[in-house]
Design brief:
The chain has helices spanning 2-8, 16-37, 42-62, 72-98. With 99 residues, it is mostly helical. Helix 2 packs antiparallel against helix 3 (42-62) and helix 3 (42-62) runs antiparallel to helix 4 (72-98). The radius of gyration is 14 Å and the shape is elongated. The model has no long low-confidence stretch (mean pLDDT 92).
């Protein structure tokens, strides 16, 4: 995750819409791994928070792109999935720390 954010997101040799498509696909796979593994710990939170910020940033950066290149509805679904998983992680972390 840190590699994507540190080395890929700021690439200037590719249009941001292409970078978005690549990173968004990788983030979906990471979210799916967390879900399949049932991982809801601090590591999951540390990955999910930047994912949410990335999708919010993408709305701003790509709002002028044609729908064929950037679909804001699909991005909103990815953001919602990320925030839902993040909320579950927060809830589980709070439950486990209060026990």
């Amino acid at each position: 995750m840190s590699y994507l954010l540190d080395n890929v997101v700021d690439r200037t040799d590719q249009p941001f819409v292409d970078v978005y498509k690549f990173i968004s696909d990788r983030m979906r796979a990471i979210r799916k791994d967390f879900t399949c593994q049932g991982s809801k710990d601090a590591t999951a939170i540390a990955c999910l928070e930047p994912m949410a910020r990335f999708h919010i940033l993408s709305f701003h950066e790509l709002c002028q792109e044609p729908k064929s290149d950037f679909d804001p509805i699909q991005n909103m679904e990815k953001l919602t999935d990320t925030l839902t998983t993040l909320r579950q992680c927060y809830d589980d972390l709070q439950t486990s720390s209060s026990s």
